[in-house]
Amino acid sequence: MHRRIVAHGTQGWFASLAGMARVPVRDDLRALEGYHSPQVEVRVRLNTNESPESPPRAWSDAFTAEVARIEWHRYPDRAATALRTAIGGLHGVGPENVFAANGSNEVLQTLLLTYAGAGRRVATFEPTYQLHAHIARLTGATVVEGERRDDFTLDPAEAERLLRAHEPHVTFVCSPNNPTGVVEPEATVRKVIDLAPGLVVVDEAYAQFSDWSALDLLDEDRPMAVVRTFSKTWSMAAARLGYVVAPTWVVAELEKVILPYHLDTAKQIAGRLAVGFVDDMNARVRHVVSERERIANALAAMPVQQWRSGANFILFRPTDRPGRDVWQGLLDRSVLIRDCSGWPRLAGCLRVTVGTAAENDEFIAALQEVLGS
Ligand SMILES: *Cc1c(COP(=O)(O)O)cnc(C)c1O
Fold it and tell me: Does residue 104 line the site of ligand 1, with CB under 6 A?
C-alpha cells in the first residue's frame, strides 16, 4: 500500500509513481492546511463578517431585469470595462486603475501570483487575515512574519526591522485588521510604504467602517495597491466580487496573469448596478457602526477584554473562562461566532460579527448567560 517515493531525478520519480492510485502533491504543499470557516446551521450567524442586511430591493429588481437579457452563448466582456469604470467612479480614478476579480481573495491571489511566487518573500504582521500568508505560500513564496504590539497595532520599528532583514517583494497591511478590528494610523501605513522595497498591499475589506482610507495615498509612482470587496459593506458576499485600486502598471500586469473571461456577465452586471446604490450602502454601514458601539458598550460591562474596532466585528477575550467554552456555550444557544481561541497570538479570543439589532440582542443575552453561569 505505502510505497516509499524516492524522488531523485525525473526518471526515478516516474518509475516510482507508475501505477499508483494517488499521486503526491507539490512538496511545498504537503505541510499546508486548508482554510476553514465552519458553516453550521444556527439561528444567529455572526461568524464571517457578512452584512446582516440584503442589498436594496431596487438593486435586485434591476439585476433580474438585466440578467434576463444576457446573451448566454457569448463570452462576457473580458476587460469588464463598464464594471471597472463604475468602480473607478467611486474613487475618482479611471478603469485603468481598477482590477476586479471573484472576491478580493482572487484579487489577492492574482497580486501574489504576479509579485510573489517561488523564490520571493511576502511579509505579514501577525495576527492578521490568514489568507494573506496562506495564498502567498500557495504561490510558492516564503512568508516572513512580523509581530504586532500587545494592543495589536503595528509597531513601525518592528516593521522597519522586518523589512530591512527580509526585503520582501510583497508587504501586507490590513486596516482595519481582521481578526482584531484595529485601524492603523495613517502615519504608520505611510511609514511602511516608505520603507518597503516591494509592493505594499493594503487590504481594506472593512475600510468603510473606519475613519480613513489608504486610497488617499495612491499614486502612479508609489508601489502600493488598495484591495476592497463587495462581500462586507456592499451586502454581496454571494456575488464573489472584489477589486484593487492601483497604479496602471500594476493593473496591466494583473491582467496578464488572470484567466481570460474570469468575471462572468451576471457578476459584472451585479457589481456595476450595485455602485449606483452607494448611498444605501453607506446608510447600512452607519447602522452597523452604531450597533457595533452598542455591542462594545455591553461587552464593557462583562468580564471580557475587548479591542477597539473600526470594522463590523469585535474581538474579545473572556477573562474568567476559557474562550473555547464560551464559544461552545453560545453555540449551544444557537449563536455562532468565530472561535479564534486556538490561533497563534490570540489565545482565548473570540470574534463576533455585528448582526441585525435583534441578532445582537440575542448574542448579548446569550453571552451574559454563558459568562454568568
Ligand atoms: C472578508 C475579507 C476579505 C474578503 O474576501 P472576499 O473574497 O472578497 O469575500 C478580504 N480580506 C479580508 C481582511 C477579509 O476579512
Answer: yes
Residue-range definition of the domain harbouring residue 344: 44-50+279-371
Q: What is the pTM of this model?
A: 0.94
Q: Is the CB of 205 under 6 A from ligand 1?
A: yes
Separation of 205 CA from ligand 1 center, angstroms? 6
In ligand 1, which atom is closest to the CA atom of 49? 1
| Sheet architecture: strand order including 304-306 | 44-46, 335-339, 350-353, 313-318, 304-306
How remote is the CA of residue 132 from the centroid of ligand 1, in Å?
10
Same domain, 165 and 257: yes
Do residue 151 and residue 223 come from a single domain?
A: yes
279-323 pLDDT tens trace: 999 999 999 999 999 999 999 999 999 999 999 999 999 999 999
Interatomic CA distance for residues 110 and 372, integer angstroms: 47
Q: Is 1 inside any structural domain?
A: no
Cα(277) to ligand 1 centroid in Å equals 21
